[in-house]
Amino acid sequence: EPEVTQTPSHQVTQMGQEVILRCVPISNHLYFYWYRQILGQKVEFLVSFYNNEISEKSEIFDDQFSVERPDGSNFTLKIRSTKLEDSAMYFCASSGGTGKGGELFFGEGSRLTVL
Amino acid sequence: GIQVEQSPPDLILQEGANSTLRCNFSDSVNNLQWFHQNPWGQLINLFYIPSGTKQNGRLSATTVATERYSLLYISSSQTTDSGVYFCAVGRGSARQLTFGSGTQLTVLP
After folding, report:
1. Which of A39, A84, A107, B103 sits CB 3.0–4.6 Å from A4 for a disulfide?
2. pLDDT digits (tens, 9 = 90+) for A60-114
3. Is B109 at the interface with chain A, CB within 8 A?
4. From the CB of residue A7, how many other CB atoms can be counted at a distance below 10 Å?
5. Between the CA of residue A38 and those of A67, A90, B12, B65, B67, what are the distances in Å?
6. B71: burial class by Cβ within 10 Å (0-12, 13-18, 19+)?
7. Which of B3, B95, B99, B101 to mutate to test the interface with A (most CBs of A within 10 A)?
C-alpha cells in the first residue's frame, strides 16, 4: 500500500542551527502538508502546498520556516535558526489522489530535538 | 477558525469492554478523519468519514454532519487499542485538517 515516508526519523540539533526535514508523499497525490506536534499536545497545521506553491499557512509558519518541492518526489521543510521551542514531532502528509481526494495520509514523523 | 472538542479526554477500560469516543465541531465540514496515534507516535488512519457510518472490524464511526458531531465506537477492546485517538476536520476549499485534543485510551489486561 502506498505510504508517505519521512527522513530522518529523529534529529538532534543545536540551537541556532538549520534543519531540513524530508518527505516523499504518495506518488499520485497533489496536496502536501506539514504538521507539528509538541510533546503531549495536539497536532497543529503548519502549511499546505499545491501546484508548487504554498496554498495555506498557519500563524506558526513564520519566516523561520520554508517549504520546497525540489524535484518530482521530495517535499522538504526547512527550519532556520532553530529554537528550543521548535522541539517537536513533525509530520508530513499528502492528499488528492483519485477516489478519496480529501483524505490525508500521514508519514511516521520526524522527531526534532533542539538542545 | 473551526473548533474541535473531543471527549472524554481520558478513558481507562478493561480488555473486552466497549467504548464510545465523541468529537464535536463548531462549523460545517467536508472532511472528517479519525486517527489512532500509537505509542511510537505514528498517526494511523482509521476512518475518512465526513458523513454517514462506516465499520472496520471492531471499530465503527458515525458522523452526523448536520448536528456537528462524530462518534467512534470501539468494541471488545484489546490492549493494542491503547493510545491517543484524534478527530480532525476540514472545511471549505481549504484542505488542511484541524485536530482535536484527543482521547487518551488505556486498555488494561
Report:
1. A107
2. 999 999 999 988 789 999 999 999 999 999 999 999 855 556 889 999 999 999 9
3. no
4. 15
5. 20, 9, 24, 30, 31
6. middle
7. B95
Cβ neighbours for A102, distance < 8 A, ≥ 6 positions apart: A95, B30, B31, B48, B50, B90, B95
For A26-52, give one letter per residue: b (16+ CB within 10 A) or e. Answer: beebebbbbbbbeeeebbbbbbbbeee
**Which grid cell sits at A99?**
477516489
pLDDT in the model for residue B7: 97
Tell me if chain A has a CB within 8 Å of the CB of B79: no
Q: Which of A106, A112, A111 is nearest to A31 (CA)?
A: A106
**What percentage of chain A's residues is helix, strand, coil (to nearest 5)?**
5, 50, 50
Count of CB atoms within 10 A of residue A23's CB?
Answer: 25
Grid cell, residue A56, equals: 495555506
User: d(Cα A75, Cα A92) in Å, to the nearest integer?
Assistant: 9
**Searching chain A, which residue's CA lies closest to the CA of residue B40?**
A108
For residue range A47-67, what is the model confidence (pLDDT) as tens digits?
999 889 999 999 999 999 999
Per-residue pLDDT band at A2 (split at 50, 70, 90)? confident
The pLDDT assigned to B96 comes to 84
Give SS3 for A12. Answer: strand
